[in-house]
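In this section we walk through a basic example: taking a raw amino acid sequence and producing a predicted 3D structure, encoded as discrete structure tokens. The instruction is simple. Fold the sequence below.
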Amino acid sequence: MRILLSFDIDGTLETGDPPGPITLEMVIRAKELGCIIGSSSDRSITSQRDMWARNNIEVDFVSNKHVLIEIKQRFEADYYLHMGDRELDRQFAREAEFDFMWMDEAAGEPWIAMKNGETPLAGGSDGPAVETAPQSFSTADCKPASHDQHWCATHHKPVWECKRLEEEMYSPQKTFDGLS
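The resulting token sequence is shown next.
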């Protein structure tokens, strides 16, 4: 199975500002397993290349995240995954038809299980279920992120999105003329 891994840098990789939970050793292990690896970040291409060169890691690509679709066009793979720490990362991944994984989930290195033909997260047999709908959801579980009070560290989304999701899950179905 050919797996392409796209890493955001700031908030995702340990070399980011702020540092994230994914270590460079994890990136190197992915490369050794045969994954196509690189970064898709808000940082300039030059800055990304310099970061990888300083750490003696040869990546297959560097890109700005808003043009992630170009990476999919350049590399043939069975599975495309972008990892990041912001809603914008998820948005660009979806637009490029990549799966998306939050940085703390990715720190478990699910690509190792995938390379072994296993599904590392709950989901189907055709790949990991990167985003799953919760069985129950409550904003009572929300904890604001230390760096941004408007960001829910528990659910990895803006607080307003948590509130909207809770309302959608628990609001009664609207009916029109007795029909639901």
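Looking at the output, two observations stand out. Strands lie at 3-7, 36-41, 61-64, 79-84, 99-102, 144-145, 148-152, 157-158. The first strand starts at residue 3 and ends at 7. In the next section we compare this with other chains.
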